[in-house]
Amino acid sequence: MEPSALVQAFLAAAPPPLRGGLASLPDLGARLLALVADGQAAWPEVAVAPERLVGFVAARLDHEVDPADLLGGLRPTDLHLACALTDGDRTAMAAFDRHYMREVDIALARMRIGPPRSSDVKQLVRQRLFVGDGVPGKIADYAGRGDLRRWVRSVAVRTCRNDLRKGKHEVLADDDQLIAQQAMPGDDPELEYMKRTYAREFQAAFTEALAGLGAREQTLLRYHHVDGLNIDEIGAIYRVHRVTAFRWLEKAKEKLVDATLVVMRARLNVSARELESVLRLIRSQVHLSLVRHLGGPSDRVEDDVLELDESELEEA
Length: 316
What we know:
Layout lengths: L2 H11 L2 H8 L4 H15 L7 H9 L17 H11 L3 H10 L1 H10 L6 H14 L17 H18 L12 H4 L7 H23 L3 H12 L4 H8 L3 H26 L4 H23 L8 H4 L3 H6 L1
Helix pairs in contact: 1-2, 1-3, 1-4, 3-5, 5-6, 7-9, 8-9, 11-14, 11-15, 12-14, 12-15, 13-14, 14-15
């Protein structure tokens, strides 16, 4: 196995903007040899051509990382298996089932998902990862910058979450005039007037306030208001008690309401009495506006679903 052949295959598959910097690395051939050797040592029964492996790695390099740092944090053993799985290697599939499907079981157990649903979700995870018939699955996206076990677990969480929300909600039409035109049953005349008068200002303020929330706060609001998950299901996803899930959700909603009010107060010249009405307007429209803003498809899993921060574990 000649280092020059590995370098040639690696550079050919690398994104064009990175090739110059990678080619200038003095020890590139030695590092590629080590990457191949580590993978072969970990999975001697899983055959991957060295040129194929380095090409697989190169094609998934991060464009925004300095070329000198690109190979430092990669996980050769995980990349070796992922490459073989992407190619549909049967031996790799068997190895994955033996060593990694347990991560799906762990993820589902932490979400308190038992049979028969757990069996269905595991099948969905396999379909998502591998697809079949020559079509690469999600495993082809694995770039080796994190632990493959954790990555598989995140796919399981996302798949389960999507399965849970099926049939639980109906996304409303995104109509910029919806608030002004739709007075909900039971609205008093003053609230209806506020909706019609401040619809545009409310939408702008709500959008700004929502963008200012943290990723977890937005995710919690999406789970409840868009995906239709109750606090028990949210607690299961985050592995916390339902009371903690409820507290987190209410805190996120109040933060959103308060931030919206601050923006509207700064933009509107209204009296203290009218501000009370503005607050009522905001509270009355939180659910509808969240569906409109967060109701699009989401295919990401936040790391905090899998591993809570120490401060939040104490809070839980």
